[in-house]
Amino acid sequence: MNKLKIGIIGLGTVGTGVVKTLKNVDSVEIVKIAVKNINKPRGVELSQGILTDNPYDIINNPDIDVVVELIGGVEPAWEYISASIKNGKHIVTANKELLAKKGEELFNLAEEHNRVCLYEAAIAGGIPIIMPIKTILAGNKINKIQAILNGTTNYILTKMDANGASYEDVLKEAQELGYAETDPTGDVEGYDAAYKITTLATIAFKQRIKIENVYREGISKVRKEDMKEASELGYKIKLIANASIDDNGNADVRVHPMLVSQKTMLAHIDYVTNAVAMSGHPIGNIVLSGPGAGEFPTASSVVGDILAIQAEFGKTDYMLPMMRCHHSAKANPVNIDDTFNKYYISITAPNAIGVIAKIGTICANKNISLASIMQKEVLENNTANITVITEKCQERLIKEVVNELDNCTVNSLIRVAEG
Questions:
Q1: Considering the chain, what is the average pLDDT of its residues?
Q2: Which of 212, 114, 197, 201 has its CA nearest to residue 149?
Q3: What pTM value is reported for the model?
Q4: Do domains 130-291 and 339-416 have the same CATH topology?
Q5: What interhelical angle do 13-22 and 295-312 show, nearest 10?
Q6: How far apart are CA 176 and CA 57, in angstroms?
Q7: Integer distance in angstroms from the first to the last C-alpha of the chain?
Q8: Mean pLDDT, to the nearest integer, of 258-276?
């Protein structure tokens, strides 16, 4: 049996896991691994001469069949991937940012050169999601996705809920444990999840979603008081990547914190675990859950893609047709102000007669119904904490309500998930 010969660009956590996993796979040979620093100690045993600090030793090597890109970011990853495709190589990548920002260009280039680009590891780590959508679920019309796609934020929110701790304290702990980066912006402000839901929605809906049309809001403003209130009301707060599309191709794609009912499975996805809930016909509702990051979970998806190519390599002139991009339609983006949601609003207001009535009147004037309104305590400065849960209403109207709450401080405005 001829071995599939691969080159790996990047030997970080995931790359190391890939190398360790492939040691037990006889049908794949790692020819070269490109790294920034050849002399850096590695957590895996490597054969003499396998490392290079020049990615073009892989890209221009005619013996290499597949380039595995594991460095992340748009540049220089795009330069390396596009050059590899033009040199006749198939691609396996875990690069969610590149896919979100240059996916259309990438898949068009791959098709032009009759090459396959697989990316299972880019969306939910070790959870198989892209290949199931492209194969087993291909006969379904998927119209809704709700997902937890970032382990760092889910860890932080879980710890805040479990320990009654502040965001700042839990973030510091997560950084010390290695669950959060020194600069956590990409995770905690929702960029990572936004990149992932952009590609996932594009694949599931078979219509292109542009990253610039994805609304994004992180978890840095979520307070420990919100976690406590949510729990008492029968909810958990999660960073949800949400996508839905109607029959006219209007796509509402966004990432933001949400109150999720404790009766749902997503509410019980804790710590670094990820989950993807999808709805469609004829499947109905389906939830896939598992480790969303880490050395071996992500390596599992990367190696699975490599072996999918290996299984067909040299047997056909048009490899893995079901895994290729076959759609060009662009979804119509829905602006967040035009969406309809339920809302949790935490308000600090003067402890005066008529304040709750005033809040109710302002909402009524916007045709917004209230599911509940509660005042729990009076503080030493003679202000009161008031919690409001609305019925479903338009986002732009709830913003108008917030602007009209004179003499009140709106501490939090968080959307409430259905179900």
A1: 95
A2: 197
A3: 0.96
A4: no
A5: 50
A6: 37
A7: 52
A8: 96
Write out the catalytic residue numbers: 196
Beta strands 215-216 and 51-52, pairing class:
unpaired
Contact (CB, 8 A) for 332 and 248: yes
Identify which of 38, 64, 66 has the alpha carbon closest to the alpha carbon of residue 50.
Answer: 38
Report residue 328's pLDDT band, with 50, 70 and 90 as the boundaries: confident
The H-or-E segment that residue 237 falls in is: strand 235-245
- The tens digit of pLDDT for each residue in 269-280 reads 999 999 999 999
Specify the residue for token string 């710890």: 159
Residue 6 and residue 14: Cα distance in Å, rounded?
A: 16
Task: Write out pLDDT tens, residues 348-362.
Answer: 998 888 899 999 999
Question: What amino acid occupies position 10?
Answer: G
Q: Which CATH number is 4-125+295-323 given?
A: 3.40.50.720
**Three-state SS for 272?**
coil
Give DSSP secondary structure letters for 167-185.
Answer: HHHHHHHHHHHTSS-SS-H
The rounded radius of gyration (Å) of the Cα atoms in the chain is: 24
SS3 state at 45: coil
Q: Where are the domains of the chain?
A: 4-125+295-323, 130-291, 339-416
Tell me the C-alpha distance between 410 and 361, whole Å. 17
410 DSSP β-pair partners: 347
Q: What is the mean pLDDT of residues 368-379?
A: 89
pLDDT digits (tens, 9 = 90+) for 383-413: 999 999 999 999 999 999 999 998 899 999 9
Instruction: Select from 3.40.50.2000, 3.30.360.10, 3.60.9.10, 3.40.50.11690 the CATH code of 130-291.
Output: 3.30.360.10
Token code pair at residue 117: 């680009």
Instruction: Please check whether residue 27 is in contact with residue 1, taking contact to mean a CB–CB distance below 8 angstroms.
Output: yes
Average the pLDDT over 303-309 and give the result. Answer: 97
Superfamily grouping for domain 339-416 = ACT domain (3.30.70.260)
pLDDT of residue 298: 95
Q: Would you say 155 and 179 are in contact if contact means Cβ atoms under 8 Å apart?
A: yes
Q: Residue type at 250? A: N
pLDDT band at 308 (very low <50, low <70, confident <90, very high): very high
> Tokens in use for 250?
């209007």
